[in-house]
Amino acid sequence: AATAATEPSRPRSGRPRRTALVAGLAALAVAAAATLTYTFWPDTSVGEDDQRNRAPGSTGDVAARPAGIVPAAFLGAWEGVVQGSQEHPRETARFEIGQGAVGAKSAVYVQVAENRLCMGRSRLVSADEDKVVLGESDVTTSEPAERCVPAAHQTLTLRSPDVLEWTSGAAKATFRKAPTGTEVVPARFLGTWSRIPAPEVYGENDDRYTSQVTITQGPVGSPVISVLDGYPRTVDGVLLDEDWSCGTTAVLAGVGNLLVVGPATRDTNAWDRECQEGLSRYLRVDKLNGKDRLLVYPMLDGEPNEYHRS
Question: Which of 135, 151, 177 is where one domain is finished?
Answer without folding.
Answer: 177
